[in-house]
Amino acid sequence: MPRKSHRRRIYEDYLGRIQRGEIGRQERLVDTAIAAELGVSRMPVREALMQLAHEGYLEGTTRGFTLPSLTHEQVLEFFELRRLLEPRAVATATQALDAGSLAAMRDAVRDAESTLSSGDIMLFFRASEVFRNAWLAAVPNRELRQTIQRYLGQVQSVRMATMRDRPTHEIIVEGQRQLLDAFHRRDAVAAADRMLRFVLQAEESYLRLAPESAAR
Amino acid sequence: MPRKSHRRRIYEDYLGRIQRGEIGRQERLVDTAIAAELGVSRMPVREALMQLAHEGYLEGTTRGFTLPSLTHEQVLEFFELRRLLEPRAVATATQALDAGSLAAMRDAVRDAESTLSSGDIMLFFRASEVFRNAWLAAVPNRELRQTIQRYLGQVQSVRMATMRDRPTHEIIVEGQRQLLDAFHRRDAVAAADRMLRFVLQAEESYLRLAPESAAR
DNA sequence: AGCGCCCAAAAAGTATACTAAAATCTGATC
DNA sequence: GATCAGATTTTAGTATACTTTTTGGGCGCT
């Protein structure tokens, strides 16, 4: 009777939770516990969790699955990938964005701006997700898009942490404003340039906030 | 008593077969059949095959796992990724290569040159693998390396096909010669430039040999 | 109290069995 | 001869039970 398999539904459920930052760093996902909660057997749960692990969203330990613990070095490595891929990605997206995506990004930037005074970090976080997902969905190269999505899922917790920092908060909102402007003007070159600057600024923020220490 | 799990051994076994091109395009990998052959149950085999599918090395169909069937568009998308990542990757590898890797690449280029007259395509193919794996292993950025490896596994069949073409054969050997020269001189800039040209040439070869048609 | 050893609990791994869905085959009907 | 319905087979999906490995804790020893 299930049009989608249990495995697939559980996979999508937990992928969403991870991407929305709903899984704590110390939380341990164990197949038997989840299976009992959902009223299914271990196997579909186990396979869903293993799939998430294979895709880098979780880390399999000998005592349940947890969020991957990134080292300082790994975070810097992801920033190198971002520098290489994201400028090109936004450039190609600029030429493919439709009116709906542009409107969604306008709303997202407005929400993000409002959090500068309200201090609502969770809204800021969600608005940033909306903004990013909107342009990312417009990237025509599917493989490029998936590659970016893969590592973005992994650095979720790092982004979460840096976004709580006030100067970083302002930098991100300003970056989104200018990217949006470039999108509206269909200026792919400006978008690429701004995105590269954006990534470099994010890296600086990270280095300033996490000097030497383990990345979380 | 198995130090490694069945799943892991089967995974590594079939990953190797795929990467060495030992799996035919029409071949269907079915867990029950493999399990019977190996004398184990379905589950470890199933999980190994699913892991390979999650990582892009196989495609799960309703009738067993097969090699992924790439569309023309997908192949072009992978070439875009290669243009973005591989020049940077070789540049950083240039500065990290040790003597052993350099020696391995010298031997590989020598083997590849010999196949220009002998026509031994399989030796040429293996030598190219050795050459590529040698510099790839020296890329310090682990995430970058893994990203490259992921898509290289998928375009295996396309590479196989283009390498049978005589002009392409010559282009590849010449590219390897010049890359090796840059590596020896520790000239990261030259290596990056040559790799970009190499990827562009490979793309041209592909377009010439597979005009419009599905990529198999 | 500190140390190690052994045992029990927890979780991964594997085996087996059953169910569901999809593809292929078969034969009847037009 | 073509086509379609149903049966059969093949394979994926799930459930359950058993085994192995790992970990943490208790217990005795010094």
Produce a short descriptive summary:
By secondary structure, chain A is an all-alpha fold. The first copy, chain A, has ten helices and two strands.
Task: Summarize the topology.
The structure is a homodimer of 216-residue chains.
Chain A lengths: L5 H14 L11 H8 L3 H13 L4 E3 L2 E3 L5 H23 L4 H20 L2 H17 L4 H13 L1 H8 L2 H19 L3 H22 L7
Antiparallel strand pairs in A: 1-2
Helix pairs in contact in A: 1-3, 2-3, 4-7, 4-10, 5-6, 5-9, 9-10
The structure holds a DNA duplex (30 and 30 nucleotides).
User: Which ranges of chain A are low-confidence, i.e. pLDDT below 50, for 5 or more consecutive residues?
Assistant: none
Oligomer: homodimer
Based on helices, strands and strand pairing, what is the structural class of chain A?
A: mainly alpha
Mind describing the biggest β-sheet of chain A?
A: 2 strands, antiparallel
| Form type of chain A | globular
CATH topology of the largest domain in chain A: Four Helix Bundle (Hemerythrin (Met), subunit A)
Q: Indicate how many domains the architecture of chain A comprises.
A: 2
CATH superfamily of the largest domain in chain A: GntR ligand-binding domain-like
Q: How would you portray this structure in words?
A:
The first copy, chain A, is an all-alpha fold and 216 residues long. Chain A has 2 domains: 61 residues, Winged helix-like DNA-binding domain superfamily/Winged helix DNA-binding domain (Arc Repressor Mutant, subunit A, Orthogonal Bundle); 138 residues, GntR ligand-binding domain-like (Four Helix Bundle (Hemerythrin (Met), subunit A)). Chain A is built from 10 helices and 2 strands. Chain A has a two-stranded antiparallel sheet. In chain A, a hairpin with a 2-residue loop joins strand 1 and strand 2. In chain A, helix 1 packs across helix 3, helix 2 packs across helix 3 and helix 4 runs antiparallel to helix 7. The longest helix of chain A has 23 residues. The radius of gyration of chain A is 18 Å and the shape is globular. At the A-B interface, helix 3, helix 4 and helix 7 of A face helix 3, helix 4 and helix 7 of B. Chain A binds a DNA duplex (30 and 30 nucleotides) through helix 3.
